[in-house]
Amino acid sequence: MVDELAGHLEALARTLPGGGEDRPGQLAMAEAVARALSQGRHLVVQAGTGTGKSLAYLLPVVLSGRGAVVATATKALQDQLAGKDLPQLAAALGDRRRVRFAVLKGRANYLCRQRLAEVTGAADPTASPLGEPVATPGLFDAAALAAASPVPAPPEETVPGEAAPGPATSGPAPEGPTGRVGQLRRLVAWAQETESGDRADLDFEPDPAAWGAVSVTARECPGAFRCPSGPDCFAEVARARAAAADVVVVNTHLYATHVASGGAVLPDHEVVVFDEAHAVEDVMTAGLGLELTPGRVRAAAATARPLLAGGEAGLADGVAAAADRLDALLGPLAGTRVLRVTAGAGAGADQELLAVLELAEGRLGGLAAALRRAGTGDGDAGDPAAPRRARALLGTSHLVGDLRSLLDTDPDRVAWVEAGGPGGRWRTLRASPVEVGPVLAERLWPAVTAVLTSATVPPRLARHLGLPPGATDELDVGSPFPYRRQALLYCPQDLPDRRRAGAEAAIHEELRRLMEAAGGRTLALFTSWRAMRQAVDALRPAVALPVLAQGELPKPALVEAFAADEAACLFATMSFWQGIDVPGPSLSVVALDRLPFPRPDDPLLEARRERVGPAAFAEVDVPRAAMLLAQGAGRLIRSATDRGVVAVLDRRLMSAGYGAVLRAALPPMPLVSDQDRVLAFLADIAAGRPAGQ
């Protein structure tokens, strides 16, 4: 197979506009992937921007004839693979090798025909509800609508970049065209014409409550064989397509759920490719953990209540009361580690939290028993409430299981409380393994051959993920871009220590000079909202350039406005350090306000530091900072003709002992501290003068 790759890559290049480019790194990577597959060895590849890494792994995977899953961390890459790269590969190979591929998402991304039938009162989930037009008032069954469970989906249930179902809501459903009932009518109409049932195919973004009323999570779905709508289930159709495909494209969250389930989520496969591998450790940490919210407990009570008769319905009230107690208890604990003592030992907040979790577990167990008793005893045949009851029972049982896991204090796991939403009023209790390497070493790597690739591979990634050292190869194929001619890495040494008065003003002045020399064209990235707002407030009145700021427009609109105006500058925080692609003359400066070290009070990283001991800074903090720094710097050079400056406005990059590790993670740009040289370089770019003139 290795001998075939060069010819196939040349054929692929001929299908590109202009015949493509010569990419030695792409061929080197493709050959390494082919060898790894033939020898059953794992491979970690750093492939810089412009390598063409997706085709470098897709081609040998397809030629190997082995079933494969490609997991990506962003929706943009998922769309690129399914909409561009795989169709291009299939067309180039033609009759020589048939390429069957599919995209599979979490269940909550697909409309549930059974849920829709219950909400609309339709007897046939595939027919127009009750034969009535979708705009008819009174179309929706009030009890079913009230019981529709807007349970927040776990991370794997939605594709990155798409909105996840939000917290439970209460009150009447708005009747207007953009309200919940109006959106439900649009969803009913769409259900009659869609072939995929995929939320991404909608021409509007539904409210979380509206979508939650017509979809189910994996926690709730009883399975196709136990559902009246099973034969026509959109999610099951998608799973069937995936099972028949050679290459299945998923998001990394869904793959983490597959690992956590013991391999029950995705079709059987021999090969897994993790693209954007820098995100795998964090995603696996979340996916192999669990989360509990008071809203999820309340939703279980609300879903079960109309399914129970007489005094049994009071059990739901008891569960809702336990949710309220949990909510009140989690508020003061936001941002802190919890459950560090075993039941019966210690005191204080941990002990009180354990008591509330035990209370909730007992009441939910009673609710589950009541739901079982509510069945007809004959397989629920002919009982119209049976599907709803099966979902309620499944969701409640999952909750009981999560509570039991939380109560089982595990020294290899860390638990903490997060707060989000307006005013931090949405509280989440999370628990994750301190290290994912041992779990993956046991459950994943023995079962597949893995290829992990990214433009930025964090230091020690293979070790952190538990890849077996004797069966894992690592490779860096570089980038085809001539960074030494195209870019400078600027780190001014005369900036004051950040802890001194006037440090922020000095950074703002440095940034002003860069912005003006470049004529705008600046992406300024900050490690905190406070620092970003201070810079916006200081520089907007000081420069005659448009200054765009995160939070003032949606992210896609901000990036579009920045790319469309060469004079514009964009100020943003951590979510813009990755995934922003603005090639061409609209971007000449990427300025990073400081080295992106993680917060010292992050509960998960705190637990990892404790485990590592004295070497924690080098083992935990420096690799994460190096990855984020490289990701931020990677926003600059996106094509062979781009030129510009990466400005790190933190002198520690050059003066600190760990600076060499951070610099090694960056593309090979000349490192300078001379401001005059940098400003002249930017002036040449702004004037359109060629490099070196």
Quick recap:
The protein is α/β, with parallel strands linked by helices and 693 residues long.
Describe this structure in words.
With 693 residues, this protein is an alpha/beta fold. Among the domains are: 2-100 and 245-286 and 436-478, P-loop containing nucleotide triphosphate hydrolases (Rossmann fold, 3-Layer(aba) Sandwich), CATH 3.40.50.300; 483-687, Rossmann fold (3-Layer(aba) Sandwich). 43% of the residues lie in helices and 12% in strands. It is built from 26 helices and 18 strands. Strands 3-4-2-5-10-1-11 form a seven-stranded parallel sheet, with helices on both faces. Helix 21 (555-564) links the parallel strand 14 (547-549) and strand 15 (569-572). The radius of gyration is 27 Å and the shape is globular. The two termini are 46 Å apart.
Question: Which helices and strands appear, and what pairs or packs with what?
Answer:
Layout: H1 2-14, H2 24-39, E1 42-47, H3 53-64, E2 68-72, H4 75-93, E3 101-103, H5 113-120, H6 142-147, H7 180-191, H8 208-213, H9 234-244, E4 247-251, H10 252-260, E5 271-275, H11 280-287, E6 290-292, H12 294-304, H13 314-330, E7 337-338, H14 349-373, H15 386-407, E8 413-420, E9 426-433, H16 437-443, E10 449-454, H17 461-464, E11 472-478, H18 483-486, E12 487-490, H19 503-518, E13 522-525, H20 529-539, E14 547-549, H21 555-564, E15 569-572, E16 589-592, H22 603-612, H23 616-633, E17 644-648, H24 652-655, H25 659-664, E18 671-672, H26 675-687
Helix pairs in contact: 1-2, 1-3, 2-3, 3-4, 10-11, 12-13, 12-14, 12-15, 13-14, 14-15, 19-20, 19-26, 22-23
